[in-house]
User: Fold these one by one.
Assistant:
Number 1:
Amino acid sequence: MTDLSGHTVFDSLARTSARLERSVRLASGLSAAMWSRDEIGSTRYAEPSHHTLSLYLSGGEGFRLRGPRAVQPSLGAGSVCVMPKGITTDWDVRGAVSLFHLYVSPEAFDRAVIETLDRDPARLELRPLVYLREPLIEGMIRAGVLGLGWDEPGERVALSYAMQALLAAQLVRVSATDRPHDAAPPAPHRGGLSRMALKRVQESVEARLAEALTIETLAAEAGLSPFHFARAFRTSTGESPHRYVLMRRIEAARSMIDAGEALSQVALRCGFVGQSHFTARFRELVGVTPGRYRQSRGA
């Protein structure tokens, strides 16, 4: 797990009896954590230095936000909260909860506003949202983020993309409320990568299959933001960046197996930290496990 000290909300929870289950930090200014907690008490997030998106994965029915004028009770599992930078919140804690946090640096938020909404970040106010039902955001977290291996180098492109998409979805939710009436929505990006940009990206992937590639790294090769790169790459190749990198890793693994390399070494050289993860992804694309594949090839 990754130490996310320095994030106000993370540090506040770390001082309680809450247990950190998973954590990851990405180069894009996005970090995520999963917590479990079962106690009676209270927690204050004092003027956080970052924005936080929270989802109650299970439990939490006894939690509530204590505001200056009213107390707002939790909706239990599926509750979504947005806690903006600089706004202090006080929470009553009662019972068990499992929750997901996305921590967003101010720089990452401003960049996403420009890229996603084509607006000046200084003109957009991120408002607190407390205990809402947001099926789109909940689904993106459960299916697109929690199902990935946060510690697996082979999953970093997918994880980066999923968290960027989650932030974009949050912005769309906010902009639907705050967009000025005279502001036209930004035109969708339809163009693909140039031939040379695509070649640079593909060469970078081939040279760094063993590394924890992120969508930010690949976007830098193309000279684009991660948001626009992901769309342009899919237009050019028909695949998402994550899918393309995974396919290249598995193709390289097949060649190494054919050459007689040990499966444990193949997994490491192709960017898979664990053998089980390598086996699952290999079977997903090839249809058989690496061991069965080796037997079928007589290697």
Number 2:
Amino acid sequence: MAPSASRLVILGTGALGRYYAYRLRDYNPIVIGTTPPPYAVYPPDRPEPDIIYPAFLPWEAPLANPASSILLAVKWAAMPRILTWISQNAPTARVFSLMNGMGQEDIFRRFPGITFLAGVTTDALTRVDPPDGPAGVFLRATGHTWMSMPDSGQPRDFPPWPDWSWESPDAIQERRWQKLLQNSVINPLSALTGVKNGELPTHPIWRLAPPLLDEARTVWARATGQDRPLKPLVKTVQELAEATRANRSSMLQDVLATRPTEIQAINGFLLRQGRRYGLSLPTHEAVVTLIERMAPTPDALWRLLAPETAPPEDGPR
């Protein structure tokens, strides 16, 4: 029987969805997705997991009552399904997104009743789906989350966590660009090599880091009107890779699990913006081509992101 109380809805049952179902368990969220509970959440300081049983509905089940807020905690491959679900269940909701990459706001403009609020998180998570136990998630490192503050102030659906900050949309957009540039280096290079983050700076493929950042910063400059010098960007990304040395990037996790990656929302977003501004990004084009050959983006998502450049029918994109 479907839950009837109006409350927070978490879209997604991957690593991020499981983790926030755990963190928000006292707020009784409804989790929407493909993998039902229970979920095993492994904090970094304890050998045994916490097992949670949040309220759950599959994607195709209707929501009994309107959601007070929606937290997007999904990968980009689920975007077509998200749009269908929102159009049927919550076309006027307030949507808080923790999705990787950029471009979500452009897609959500098709819903004039939606209030879209983007955020950024640096929590390090690893999804686990054992054949003989509950679906789980390992919290590798507790980072920080920044979310756009609604005009009405901090929502009651979210507790006042010390590692969760509410900021202006402009401040969040700056953080999103910073994370996009970091992800546009670490994610594809780790996926192409199969190595953990900390091994990248000493790997031969790290020679691609400066040109990737140089090309990306030109797009960032055209989009925001502010130029960033290359050298500090390279230093910051290298320090991030070393600080998260034990982590497998989300893109590497996707490749290892034979799931679609988020390359089109990260490097692909930069390519599309570059075309908009008449900029050439050959290094990004190369890594996108290579990742697409490893794990092609689903056609339905491709057409949402870049309808003017639909994928060819006769081979990898």
Number 3:
Amino acid sequence: MKKVAIIDVGSNSIKLDIFVIKKDGKMIRKNKVRNFAKIENMLQNNYITNEGMAIILRVVKNYVDLCNNSNVKSIIAVATEAVRKAKNKEDLIFRINSLCQIEMKVISGLEEAKLAFKGVDQKLINNKGYLMDIGGSSTEILSFENNRVIDCYSFPMGARLITNKYEIKDFIDKRTFDSIKKEIINKYFNDISNDFNESEIYLIGTGGIIKNIGKMINHNLNSCLKKDNAYHIKYDDVKNLYDFIEYRKIKDLKEFKGLSERRTDTIKGGIIILACFLEKINCEKIIISKKGIREGLLKEYLEKNLELF
């Protein structure tokens, strides 16, 4: 058995997953570490601040040291939207690679979507549908049919950006809510093709925000079905969840079961984005996958380096 690690520098957190690869190719996650540094908040005029640089460097170096002490064979390191849009991203990546002796790269939004697609269980993508990952500062969407990618989209719009832009803190009046929906659908989702028979399609959700929405529905509405190691919910569940928390202040959301404390300030923005897309494609069925981009990165690595294992 050999170990491979994934380091993922995202908008909301810096993540480390260490996997054990068995001789039969089975992947088992043995260690998971999270640092909830909000990279999006470290940007000033689209430059990562010196303080932000120092935090990212320290966290990644700690992760690399942990990997070295854990006999990890290979480290795969990527950065996504918050770093992607930083004007000094090349400086950050150079510093990380020089200090840690790894090869971190910044991946595009389209690469994110395709890696998430590769990472989910194959049995979830053997029909027709869409895959969606809502991040803090970007949203990736992919359409598929019979395990094949049809179209791929990446939008510079995520739960934190929507929350900050519209100052979604506590109650949102209907006029503001309709304005947000109109902008999201018209500005971002209008060009997404929907050539599928609407009765057949479903949405696969990946990533922390959509997973957290599923947990909240499971704990508070009792309408979530767990099947094939994934949550199965409906569009009405998403609408009911928003109605459930709409009038609650941010500080009061902490009492809700299933909601991660670090997402209390952005969960409303995430639910709005998800609801807008479901309305756009007229989709009723959502499957929330536990696997996503990091499993996709690992699968891609193993396909290229299978002889090493």
Number 4:
Amino acid sequence: MSMQQITLSLLLFLMLLGLPLYGCQDPNGLPAETARTKPLIAINQQSISLDEFIKAFNQTRHPDQQLSEIERQELQRAFLIQLIDRTLIHQEAELRGVLVGADELGEAIAFYRQDYPEDSFDAMLKERGLTLAAWQHELEESLTMEKLLEEVVYRDLEVSDREISAYYKANREAFNRPEQVRVRQILVADEAEGHRLLGLLRKGENFANVARQHSLSPDAEQGGDLGFFSRGEMPAAFDAVVFDLPVGRLSELVQSEYGSHLFLVEEKRKPAQLGKAEASAEIRGLLERQKRETIYLDWLQELRSRATIEVDWLQLENQSKN
């Protein structure tokens, strides 16, 4: 996938969202200087200024990362989409009264900090340009999103025995299978960003969360989950790494025609012929993941469809010329 293809995909996605484009002047003929006083993004009653957007975007990059103008624009557009979706989700959490208690937050903070020996946690914050308060706010937002999904969005999710039987009957050959791996990936545009994210992951950041926030791959919304696959189903560069990688181990940076990848192998399957009883737990997990993905995307699209979203694209484009 080329950068041009990524550009087209992102633009089409934004067009489907129905995000309006502002011109250099507003409808009343105000000059550009006045027009730039408008927020960069307006999501329902919440506004995000250009300065706030740039600050948040820069926190996703290493300070020494060098980007071409095209790469920077593409990364900013991808980040903008993620920021809009994140804002919509947290607005919904607030509307529904979903809160993370002090005890829950404190437990999560202690859990994450235990992976950072001595002063390495403070070093991580400094590298990301975050204060402790800002990091705790990020963590609270992530926990709130997870709680909203589990308590509201996935609340009625069920997989019946009948669905499991039907799936096994329709996909019996899939359970006479060769060696397989289940992998998560993160895709970024350049090596510098890839090395920065690899550093965060080695310091204990959750792979799925990093994928959701930074990956440019379509599977980012699923935490980079590629599911199970056999040799030959993915690019050769993937197979060369993931089939030799132990479960739970991070890969080094892998280059492909799409960009720079990081992989995490979550499960491995040896060649096997499974009966229905043996395959039942696996099928249930698969159907549950499929339902979660469908439910989440439908729910997110519903949030988008009933939201008022405006983006001042010219303001974003003009900032690169200053």
